[in-house]
Design a protein that fits this description.
- GO terms for molecular function: hydrolase activity; metal ion binding.
- This is Glyoxylase-like metal-dependent hydrolase (Beta-lactamase superfamily II).
- Keywords: Hydrolase, Metal-binding, Zinc.
- By secondary structure, this protein is an alpha/beta fold.
- It has a single domain, classed as 4-Layer Sandwich (Metallo-beta-lactamase, Chain A).
- The chain is 25% helix and 29% strand.
- It has six helices and 14 strands.
- It has a six-stranded mixed β-sheet, covered by helices on one side. Strands 7-8-9-10-13-14 form a six-stranded mixed β-sheet. A two-stranded antiparallel sheet has the order 11-12.
- The radius of gyration is 16 Å and the shape is globular.
Length: 212
């Protein structure tokens, strides 16, 4: 069964997730750690729980979600996966990172592309990859059906949605992604978002003001 540990990193309040199961194999989603203390927090959890990281998988490539990718990748010698449509966003981060105070940003290389219709596999876990653009052109969500879990990035928040005023964003596309790819899931699926606390599909269907 899937276990989830969340960490809130960097000044943007970004949620990084470690997903693991009874085999101790794990994947790291959207490592946004930047300073020494944040890296130590992530690494200590992995060590304390005797986890074996298999890969880094990102929902998208905005700066707050990729700050720690290169360092985590190097520490565990694991591949980094991203949807190909978000590669331009990743490459752009180095051009503006210092403007946000991240002068030490290290751009990671992409080892493989996340493909829609395929699964991310580790241990006994199989995550479905769904394409949910709108906040970012190559945004994806990871779904574990046995645990009714969605790792949703910056698409759907508790009573809110991801912003669409950044390069590659589009409001109509985002709303369509939510309705067709997330709201088609059962109401009891829990959404772990890239910011703020978790929510459920059923709660957002009833209470999200952007999706009435």
């Amino acid at each position: 069964m899937l276990s989830i540990q969340s960490f809130t990193f960097n000044p943007f309040g970004e949620n990084t997730y470690v997903l693991y199961d009874e085999t101790q194999q794990a994947v790291i989603v959207d490592p946004g750690c930047y300073d020494k203390k944040e890296f130590e927090t992530l690494y200590s959890f992995i060590t304390d729980h005797q986890l074996i990281p298999q890969q880094i998988i990102n929902t998208h490539a905005h700066i707050d979600h990729v700050l720690g990718v290169a360092a985590v990748k190097a520490k565990y010698n694991i591949p980094f996966l991203l949807h190909r449509d978000d590669e331009p966003l990743l490459r752009a981060v180095k051009t503006y990172a210092s403007n946000y105070g991240f002068a030490q940003f290290d751009e990671p290389s992409i080892d493989a592309y996340l493909e829609i219709g395929e699964e991310v596999a580790f241990g006994n876990t199989r995550l479905e990859v769904r394409f949910v653009p709108g906040h970012a052109p190559g945004h994806v969500a990871f779904i574990d059906h046995p645990s009714h879990t969605v790792i949703g990035g910056d698409v759907l928040f508790r009573q809110s949605i991801g912003r669409t005023d950044l390069p590659g964003g589009d409001m109509n596309t985002l709303l369509m992604s939510i309705r067709k790819q997330l709201f088609t899931l059962p109401d009891d699926y829990t959404v772990y978002a890239g910011h703020m606390e978790p929510t459920t599909i059923g709660f957002e269907k009833k209470h999200n003001p952007f999706l009435k």
